[in-house]
Amino acid sequence: KSILPLLTHQYPRLSVFENYDSIQNTHFVWDHNKENLWAVVAVCSALSRDLQLTDLDVDRLLQDVYPLEHRLSSIRTIWNVTIVDDGICTSAAACKAALDAMSESCVLIAWWFDKWDNYLLLSDSLKQKASYIVVYGQVADSIAQVATDAHVSYTKVWSLQDAVQSALQYAQKNSIKYVLFSPAAASFDMF
Prior knowledge:
This protein is 38% helix and 16% strand. The chain has seven helices and six strands; from the N terminus they run αααββαβαβαβαβ. The protein has helices at residues 4-10, 31-50, 58-62, 92-101, 123-129, 140-149, 160-173; strands spanning 73-78, 81-85, 106-111, 130-136, 154-156, 178-181. Strands 1-2-6-3-4-5 form a six-stranded mixed β-sheet, sandwiched between helices. A hairpin with a 2-residue loop joins β1 (73-78) and β2 (81-85). The longest helix is centred in the N-terminal third of the chain and has 20 residues, at 31-50. The model has no long low-confidence stretch (mean pLDDT 83).
């Protein structure tokens, strides 16, 4: 979720918010991260001006800042498909947020132990952002039912290796840029 509305209300002199796309050289992806990074840079710049400090080198400031592990972070690109790790996602609501944050359609890998969450929360996000779903474990039937109702194709697999292989093959064959690991269930650190 973006912190921009709060900052513009609390610090109305900030005038740089219209151009957060100018932040390019970071390890973060997707607009919500760019907005939040730009908000931090804007506040630091405004404070720097107020305190009459030298101007900030934004690129240098951000070059050593990395996303926290397992929170929508890119792992690797294989066959022109970027694998995105959101392994911290252990609920339907967190998976929905991850899907909504994606800039375009992806292949979703949902995984493992069903906590009897309300997976119906995923319906609209699956329709909009998931081209295909790979499911495994106890959660497979619950998410498969929501996928069926949302008219999104899925496959059930029997191992993490099969899940990754299936997702990458589907993504490459269909020119999809992202595979999203977002278990929507307890994954016991398997990601």
